[in-house]
Amino acid sequence: MMAANTSYCVGPAVLAAILAHAAAAAPAEACGLVLGAESRIDAAVPAVNVAERPERGFEIDPATLLRVHREARGSGRSVVGWYHSHPNGARQPSATDAARAVEDGRLWLIAAAGQVTAWRAAAGGPVHGRFVAVDLVAG
Ligand SMILES: [Zn+2]
Known about the structure:
Layout: E1 7-10, H1 12-25, E2 31-37, E3 40-47, H2 62-72, E4 78-85, H3 95-100, E5 107-112, E6 115-125, E7 129-138
Parallel strand pairs: 1-3, 1-7, 4-5
Antiparallel strand pairs: 2-3, 2-4, 5-6, 6-7
Bound molecules: zinc ion (ZN).
Zinc ion is lined by residues 84, 86, 93-94, 97.
């Protein structure tokens, strides 16, 4: 279980990369992994969305998942979570996201309507009884 930081510092280049991926993938959902250390996110790694209906959900390509975890090991960084986009513009996690979320401390970043929001699965959270908002601080 990772530390449950309530805010993360994230560089503008990382946010720009996630938003650019989201725009390029629309109307399908974009997805990828985010890497960082402590309470900082310092990289986003795009992945192919291998979901059966990528315009309705996301599934990160398992090969990318494995590779990124392997590369992170020993680098001082870890996979702090993943991102995906909501082409419909909804900034909050969907009910589908909530159904899949497990309380493992990972961050869920959502790109929608030109913004990135962050969430973490927690029992009884205010969104779908499953997610609490996490602050992203630019810098
Ligand atoms: Zn979603």
